[in-house]
């Protein structure tokens, strides 16, 4: 349920109304816009007398929220959410470009890529230290050592760092190393205990869509994080599993539009994991921005043919620089900046 207050509702009335609602055991999320204040009610709202509240002088309207996700719903929060990550905004007019290798391999590799993408205009550095792999015999990442390398490379290049967490017991390590965005991978999208754990932090979370997840299931996973108090959630469309085998996954750009319609959360697109083919990355990055995405997440490796994982979908620093030039030309056409 949401309560929309009239523009000039006095603060005394707002405080009184909120106190009476909280006394019934219902939580309230407050969203203040330029003209209206919205109170989003979460919990057992059946104890709330809708007709009584609607009759108050300073209440504009009372609306039942049909979606099972509340805090992630645009009804609760009409304005787009903009998340600040180390001075980089995600969700505003300026596009976010997250780039880096699938996996951290050596200090020279990650630092070289970081400097190259920084020079080309990237806004954040990504890299895997803990790698979820389908085969138990595949390279699983350098773990704690790789995380240290990644964070050091980010500091040297003055780029915020994005990396994936695999289990809740690593949260303290991620916070200690000052990871700027904690990534929840596709395979962990419905790891509810992990979602609850990152929800207790206030660190921005990049939530990737599960391999076979519906948009509602994806937003419900975001709700788990937000229900814990962490509202800094960024969604990432990375392709879903379909019957098609030519590409690694099927990139669902319609999800960008659906999310923008249903939710206020920012969304970025990962064309690298979606296709598994480096020659598709530039065109689909441009398509994602044209569709309304708030940014892209690109895999970049200085020697993709010798990468320890996902080399086929990684582009070189030179290719990334050309991609950035293309995005600079596209951004103003769709009302964005780079």
TrEMBL record:
GO terms for biological process: aromatic amino acid family biosynthetic process. One of its GO terms (molecular function) is transferase activity. Residues 1-67 form the DAHP synthase ferredoxin-like domain. Residues 87-329 form the DAHP synthetase I/KDSA domain. Pfam families: DAHP_snth_FXD, DAHP_synth_1. Keywords: Transferase. It comes from the Bacteria. The keyword Glycoprotein does not apply. PANTHER family: PHOSPHO-2-DEHYDRO-3-DEOXYHEPTONATE ALDOLASE, PROTEIN AROA(G). NCBIfam families: DAHP_synth_Bsub, PRK08673.1, PRK12595.1. This is 3-deoxy-7-phosphoheptulonate synthase.
């Amino acid at each position: 349920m949401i309560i929309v207050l009239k523009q000039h509702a006095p603060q005394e009335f707002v405080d009184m109304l909120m106190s009476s609602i909280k006394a019934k055991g219902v939580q309230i999320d407050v969203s203040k816009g330029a003209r209206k204040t919205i109170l989003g009610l979460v919990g057992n709202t059946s104890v709330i007398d809708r007709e009584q509240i609607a009759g108050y002088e300073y209440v504009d309207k009372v609306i039942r929220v049909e979606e099972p996700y509340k805090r992630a719903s645009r009804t609760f929060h009409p304005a787009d959410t903009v998340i600040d990550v180390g001075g980089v905004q995600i969700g505003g007019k300026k596009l976010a470009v997250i780039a880096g290798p699938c996996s951290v391999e050596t200090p020279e590799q990650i630092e070289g890529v970081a400097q190259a993408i920084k020079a080309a205009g990237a806004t954040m550095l990504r890299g895997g230290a803990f790698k979820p792999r389908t085969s138990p015999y595949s390279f699983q990442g350098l773990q704690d050592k790789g995380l240290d390398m990644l964070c050091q490379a980010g500091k040297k290049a003055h780029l915020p760092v994005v990396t994936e967490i695999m289990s809740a017991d690593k949260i303290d390590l991620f916070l200690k190393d000052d990871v700027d965005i904690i990534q929840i991978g596709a395979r962990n999208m419905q790891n509810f205990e992990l979602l609850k754990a990152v929800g207790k932090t206030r660190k921005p979370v990049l939530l990737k869509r599960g391999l076979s997840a519906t948009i509602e299931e994806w937003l419900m996973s975001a709700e788990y994080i937000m229900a814990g108090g962490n509202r800094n959630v960024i969604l990432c469309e990375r392709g879903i599993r379909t019957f098609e085998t030519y590409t690694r996954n099927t990139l669902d750009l319609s999800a960008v539009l659906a999310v923008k319609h249903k939710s206020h959360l920012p969304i970025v697109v990962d064309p690298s994991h979606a296709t598994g083919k480096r020659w598709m990355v530039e065109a689909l990055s441009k398509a994602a921005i044209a569709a309304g995405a708030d940014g892209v997440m690109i895999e970049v490796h200085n020697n993709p043919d010798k990468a320890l994982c996902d080399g086929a979908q990684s582009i070189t620093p030179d290719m990334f620089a050309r991609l950035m030039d293309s995005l600079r030309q596209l951004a103003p056409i769709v009302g964005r900046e780079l």
